Backbone:
């Protein structure tokens, strides 16, 4: 079943746009890894929050993507810009539009 | 800018699948209303939770969709099956894959 994942991460003050740029750089390889959606966004009332909404072919595809060299490199570059506060939500996608 | 919305809703015990069915019935008209993604899902460790991840052309498209007759009808049918506990997250989508 398709797997949905929403991850909200807090950035160090002033580094939100840097984190967004890092997350968007690695997008090209995601489709081949089984990613259907990877939407990077920000929120109006919190200048230090980045949110990513993802849909993958399966949870296994998502989990394996974390081992890709480009994913690891992006995480290594982003981590110093993050506070370490993450909040994530998962779901098993049963249907809908665009999934 | 594209607008992302994730809504988690608690169903009355045993009514999760009914709510999922109602949410999936109205999917056909969403694209014309400016919806790019409408993923309905469930979570492994909570049998009474339904989660919907949406991406729209804009926040205005999303807000206007709530006035569509089919949306109003679906909400009216689902409400008696819900406890009233909702948790939602918004974002302005800056880029990514599939958006």
Residues:
């Amino acid at each position: 079943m398709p797997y949905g994942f929403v991850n909200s991460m807090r950035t160090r003050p002033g580094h939100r746009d840097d984190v967004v740029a890092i997350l968007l750089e690695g997008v090209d390889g995601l489709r081949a890894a089984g990613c259907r959606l990877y939407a990077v966004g920000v929120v109006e009332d919190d200048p230090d929050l980045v949110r990513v909404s993802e849909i993958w072919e399966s949870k296994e595809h998502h989990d394996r993507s974390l081992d890709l060299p480009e994913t690891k490199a992006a995480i290594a570059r982003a981590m110093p810009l993050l506070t370490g506060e993450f909040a994530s939500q998962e779901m098993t996608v049963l249907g809908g539009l665009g999934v």
Notes: Chain B touches chain A through 35 residues (CB under 8 Å). The first helix of chain B runs from residue 16 to 25. The mean pLDDT of chain B is 96.
